[in-house]
Each structure stands twice: as structure tokens, then as C-alpha cells.
Amino acid sequence: MSVEQFLYLLISLAIIAFLIKNVTPKKQVQTKEQKRAEILSNYKNELESALEECENENRVAIKSKLLKKFSQELAFNIFFDKSEIREILLELSKHK
Predict the structure, then answer these.
(1) CA atoms of 73 and 22, how far apart (whole Å)
(2) Which residues does 66 contact at the CB level (< 8 Å), separation at least 6?
(3) Could you state, in chain order, the average pLDDT of each consecutive group of 10 residues for the chain (96 residues)?
(4) 3-class state of residue 55 by DSSP
(5) C-beta separation of 95 from 50 below 8 A
(6) For residues 49, 50, 53 and 54, what is the CA-based torsion angle, rounded to 10 degrees?
(7) CB atoms within 10 A of CB 41
(8) Which of 60, 58, 56, 67 lies closest to 91, judged by CA?
(9) Within the chain, where are the H helices?
(10) Nearest to 80 by CA among 28, 37, 27, 29
(11) Count of CB atoms situated within 10 Å of the CB of 87
(12) DSSP E strand boundaries for 37-76
């Protein structure tokens, strides 16, 4: 391999690396508060959609079942500790 070919290869690799670094989309990192708000919003939406479809007598049973499900999911979530999970569930339980 000649010196010219080596330089062309080196320059080509540098250009490719530069393009890959600058063209690939960067993942947006969420803060803990943003992630908490997103999760809470998703749970509220799921709760609302489930309660829209039911009759008044079944509302309490369905809401209780969903809150238990949310509690189990949040227990495995690394973003929340037990006190935050309680706050979220309390907020969701007050949601009509």
C-alpha cells in the first residue's frame, strides 16, 4: 500500500466517522421530573379510558384493580422510591 493510498484511506475514514457522529440522531435524555410526569400522564389516560367504558357500580372495582396494577408496575420502576409511589397512587386514586 502506497503512502497516497494510506492517506486517502485515513481521510475517508475520518470523513465517515465525522458524518456518523454528526448525522445520527441523538437520544433526548429526560429528567426525573419529566419521566415522572410522563408516566403519571400515561397512567391517568389509561385510568380515564378504562373508567369511561364502565358503569357506575363497576367503577370502584375497576379503579381498584388498575391501581393495584399500577402499584406493581411502579414497584419495579427504578425512577421511584416507595414514598413517591405512594404519592403517585394517591394522586391517581383522587382522579375521577
Answers:
(1) 37
(2) 46, 47, 50
(3) 83 86 75 83 88 76 88 84 87 80
(4) coil
(5) no
(6) -150
(7) 10
(8) 67
(9) 3-23, 32-52, 56-75, 82-94
(10) 37
(11) 13
(12) none
Task: Give the pLDDT confidence score for residue 84 in this predicted structure.
Answer: 86
Cell of 85: 409511589
Residue 70 CB: number of other CB atoms within 10 A?
21
Q: What is the pLDDT of residue 17?
A: 86
Nearest-angstrom CA–CA distance, 81 and 32: 12
Q: Measured between alpha carbons, how far is 62 from 59 in angstroms, rounded to an integer?
A: 5
The DSSP secondary-structure symbol of 27 reads P
Extract the C-alpha cell encoding 56: 357506575
Distance CA 30, CA 33 (A): 8
pLDDT of 68 reads 92
Cβ-based neighbour number of residue 45 at 10 Å: 10
